[in-house]
Design brief:
The protein is of the alpha/beta class and 213 residues long. The chain contains eight helices and nine strands. Helix 5 runs parallel beside helix 8.
């Protein structure tokens, strides 16, 4: 199992949701437990809703990789990683099961209480590494676990796409260098069936309604 000690000044404040992106639960479990894989996570939830606690959250797991969110870099330092069993976009992406959502909801409630994590800090792998990652993807519906990540008050101001991307939480370096991937990540959060970087009027409206919900 890969892990590191958390530095005293690195406080857990994020939960990062992933999918396994592997053909079977067994292969995902083995990879997350194998020291030679250079990856790990704190929790793994099977399609049957079984929660595997792979690593105590007081330790740092290696789930986020090269990542940034808001003003933070190296999100492993600040986060708890949860992997959901799903073959992913490479092997046959499917809807998540009702049992997965139920177990995830209970687990996140537990973690929120014990680590004082806010709803706005429950984030996706594709948020913190939009140029590299697609998970948990457009078939993950966060409302099914009762989470509203955004609670901004609507104003009369007209926001640019860049301003909304910043309000969403993307690190400025991603907005400047990987804007199209940021837009695609937002479309996954909006559960769009087609994921591309176009900026239609509908997308702008949907994006605004997402962050000012």
């Amino acid at each position: 199992m890969n892990y590191s000690a958390r530095k005293k000044n690195k406080i857990v404040k994020y939960i990062v949701i992933h999918y396994t992106g592997m053909k079977t639960l067994k292969s995902a479990y083995q990879k997350l437990s194998d020291k030679s894989s250079n990856v790990s996570a704190h929790y793994l939830i099977s399609r049957k809703g079984i929660i595997f606690n792979l690593l105590c959250p007081k330790y740092k797991a290696w789930h986020a990789g090269k990542s940034k969110w808001k003003n933070n870099i190296n999100i492993n330092d600040y986060s708890i990683g949860i992997e959901l069993e799903n073959k992913g976009h490479d092997y046959g992406y499917t809807n998540y099961s009702k049992k997965q959502y139920s177990s995830l909801k209970n687990l996140i409630y537990f973690l929120k209480i014990n680590f004082f994590i806010l709803n706005k800090n429950i984030i996706f792998h594709s948020d913190i590494a939009p140029n590299r990652k697609e998970d948990p993807g457009e078939r993950f519906f966060i409302k099914k676990i009762g989470i509203n990540r955004f609670n901004n008050k609507k104003t009369k101001k007209i926001y640019t796409i860049d301003e909304m991307l910043k309000l969403y939480g993307f690190h400025m370096s991603y907005i400047e260098n990987h804007k199209r991937f940021c837009i695609m990540a937002v479309k996954r959060s909006l559960n769009y069936a087609v994921i591309n970087s176009s900026q239609s009027k509908k997308f702008v409206k949907d994006f605004y309604n997402l962050i000012f919900s």
